Amino acid sequence: MLKPAYLEYRCPRCGFINAIARDTVIDMYKEQLEDCQHCQQKLEIIAANGINDKINLIVFEQDDYAK
Ligand SMILES: [Zn+2]
């Protein structure tokens, strides 16, 4: 089965769809920080196994940035 090279996740702040390289989320269940490419919000992303070999991305806003 061919897997996409990028995973998409929605910024919870502005709704922009960002893409992250699959290779960079190989550390499952370990949070990592990315910036939203649209609003520059700092986002915490956690990869989790989904059904059918899919990867679910759970995205949180980093509160300390929104000042
Ligand atoms: Zn955003």
Task: Note down, in words, how this protein is organized.
The model has no long low-confidence stretch (mean pLDDT 85). A hairpin with a 5-residue loop joins strand 4 (42-49) and strand 5 (55-61). This protein is mainly β. Helix content is 0%, strand content 43%. It has a domain at 28-67. It has no helices and five strands. It starts with 5 loop residues before the first strand and ends in a 6-residue tail after the last strand. The protein is globular and about 35 Å long. A three-stranded antiparallel beta sheet has the order 3-4-5, with no helix packed on it. Zinc ion binds at residues 11, 13-14, 16, 36, 38-39, 41. Residues 11, 13-14, 16, 36, 38-39, 41 line the site of zinc ion. This is CPXCG motif-containing cysteine-rich protein. It comes from Alteromonas lipolytica.
**Secondary-structure element series:** EEEEE
Give the distance, in angstroms, between the N- and C-terminal Cα atoms.
44 Å
Alpha carbon gyration radius: 12 Å
Q: Please count the helical segments.
A: 0
Tell me roughly what share of residues is in helical segments. Answer: under 10%
Report the average pLDDT across residues.
Answer: 85
- How would a textbook summarize the main sheet? 3 strands, antiparallel
So what's the overall shape? globular
Sheet with most strands: strand arrangement? 3-4-5
Strand content: 35-45%
Short description:
This protein is mostly beta strands and 67 residues long.
